[in-house]
Amino acid sequence: METILVLAHTETDGLLAKAALEALGAAKTLGGTLIVGLVGENVQSSANSIASCGAAKFLGVTGPDFGQARYATDAAAAEAICKAAGATVVIAPATSRWNRVLAGVAHRLGGRADTHVTAITAANGVVSVNRWYYRQRMEAVLQRTQRPWVIALEAGCCEAWKGSAGSTTVEAVAVSLTDASKQTTVTGIRAPAADQQTIRPDAKLLLVAGAGWTKTQPDGKTHTDDAEKLILGFLRLTQASLGSSKSLVDLSGEGQAVLPFMSHLHQIGQTGATPRHPKGLSTCCHGEEPHTVGWRFVNERRAIDLNPNCGWARGKADVLYVADAFAVMTKLNELLATKK
Ligand SMILES: Cc1cc2nc3c(=O)[nH]c(=O)nc-3n(C[C@H](O)[C@H](O)[C@H](O)COP(=O)(O)OP(=O)(O)OC[C@H]3O[C@@H](n4cnc5c(N)ncnc54)[C@H](O)[C@@H]3O)c2cc1C
Asked: Are 134 and 44 found together in one domain?
């Protein structure tokens, strides 16, 4: 029987991120002995928030040295907790903080690590993970005999654990740090203001903008100012996440006066991101295969395009509106505004 460790770190508010609760939710489906390991300046509130999860014990590495993301201290903390737990399987949310250290931790423990895991199952006590290859085109199911097996679980793939809070005891795991392991300091975080942040992984809806927004329209002119107002207006009204086709972000990157809020981080597709949202609406985008491969995990897909022969019409969308996106989005924003 496996000893399954859910390894999580606290966020800046001292609590657990949704991704950590998803890792816990996944671990709970596997059977075996469950142990929770927490890293952070203070982990008691986090432990209490999941007190009823059925863990055999809660382990914690705490103190000011573990409040910030830093390879040396995070790796040492994770290694110590894995050893203290005697874990054979370690499930960690694939946060940027953990993604940096998990492979190194597995190496130190003589184990193996798998990243970008999208599902974990167990049948007859044998744990398997799912992982996509070749830019989300092929899915493999893997098992390993080597232990410990460190698994970085992608966010948004599993049901988050839900249960009542309580109070629990956290066993402290000691980690001795050298001065050298503390020489990196996070001096601040640079992030766009909340209302300028248009990539929202937890949004219910993804709006994709394609290059058509910047193309010459039937009146012989381009209307990028209108495009900007319509797209940003829709995002403001719906709090949707914004994605883009490669063509549009390439235009922005080339310094043309296009849509200044677009960056390569918005690109969806074969060489872009593969976000997970319940719904997606594509506008002014042709629906080419390298782009739509990034829509694989969007459950309900709709598109607006002038061209009835675009890729969306060939099975890439559930609904295609053959229409002018400027007109449709203007009307849509009006309707949304009246609902506010
Ligand atoms: C190896 C490789 C990897 C790639 N990876 C990616 C990737 O990761 N992501 C990606 O996006 N692309 C990728 N591409 C590029 C991809 O093949 C397409 O070229 C690109 O996605 C096209 O972008 P687009 O549909 O926005 O632009 P276009 O093909 O120019 O289409 C614009 C669309 O807008 C429509 N339109 C114009 N005006 C309006 C209007 N008023 N109302 C409604 N519709 C309008 C037009 O009918 C047209 O269909 C890759 C290509 C290769 C070769």
From this structure: yes
User: Considering Cα of 239, then 196, then 295, then 245, what sign does the dihedral take?
Assistant: positive
> Tens of pLDDT along 293-338?
999 889 999 999 999 999 999 999 999 999 999 999 999 999 999 9
Q: What six digits make up the tokens of 50?
A: 């999941």
Domain match, 134 and 158 both? yes
Residues 95 and 17 in one domain: yes
Q: Which of 182, 207, 223 is the last residue of a domain?
A: 182
* Domain endpoint, select from 128, 162, 182: 182
The residue contributing the CA closest to ligand 1 atom 30 is 211
| Ligand 1 atom 43, closest CA | 305
Total domain count, the chain: 2
Residues with CB under 6 A from ligand 1: 210-212, 215, 217, 245-248, 267-272, 284-286, 288, 290-291, 294, 304-307, 310, 324-326
Is there a cis peptide before residue 148, judged by omega within 30 degrees of 0? yes
The CATH number given to whatever domain includes residue 244 is: 3.40.50.1220
Question: Domain containing 13: what range?
Answer: 3-182
CATH at 33 = 3.40.50.620
Separation of 73 CA from ligand 1 center, angstroms? 44
Nearest atom (ligand 1) to Cα of 248 = 26
pTM across the whole model:
0.78
> How far, in whole angstroms, is CA 163 from its chain's centroid?
22
Tell me which residue has its CA closest to atom 32 in ligand 1: 212
Q: In this predicted model, what pLDDT tens digit does every residue of 125-135 receive, in sequence order?
A: 899 999 998 87
3-class SS of residue 49:
helix
Q: In what order do the strands lie in the sheet with 205-209?
A: 241-244, 205-209, 279-283, 300-305, 319-322
